[in-house]
Amino acid sequence: MTAPSEAFAATLAGAIPTGRPLADWVRVHRDGVVEIRSGKVELGQGILTAFAQIAAEELDVGLARIRMTAAGTDISPDEGLTAGSLSVQTAGPTLRSVCAQVRAVLVAAAADRLGVAADDLVVDDGWVSTPTGGSVSYWQLPADELLDRPVTGTATPKPTSAYRVVGASVPRIDLPDKLLGRPRYVHDLAPAGLLFGRIVRPRSPGSTLVAADPAGALAIPGVVTVVHDGDFLGVVAEREEVAVRAADQLRSDTTWRAGATLPDEAELSAFLTAAPAETTVLAEHGELGAAATVLATYHRPYLAHGSIGLCSATALTTTGASPHLEVWTHSQGIYPLRRELARALTLPADAITVRHVEGAGCYGHNGADDVAMDAALLALAVPERPVQVVWSRADELAWAPFGPAATVRLAARVGPDGEVRAWHHEVWGNGHISRPGSLGSVALLAAGHLADGARIDPAMEPPLASGGGAGRNAVPGYAFPAYRSVNHRLLTMPLRTSAMRALGAFVNVFATESFLDELAVAAGRDPVEYRLAHLTDPRARAVLETAAARAGWGTDRRAESTGRGIGFARYKNSGAYCAVVAEVEAIEQVRVRRLTVVVDAGLVVNPDGAENQIEGGAVQATSWTLKERVRFDRCGVTSDSWQTYPILRFSEVPSVAVAFLDAAGNPSLGVGEAAQGPTAAAIGNAVFDALGVRVRSLPFTEEQIIAAMPD
Amino acid sequence: MPDPALGAAYVLVNGAHHEVLTEPDTPLIYVLRNHLGLKGTRYGCGATTCGACLVLVDDRPTYSCDTPLWAVDGKATTTVEGLGSAAAPHPVARALLAEQAAQCGYCISGIVVAAAALLARQPDPSEAEVREALDGHLCRCGAHNRIVRAVLAAAREGAR
Question: Do residues B13 and B62 both lie within one domain?
Answer without folding.
Answer: yes
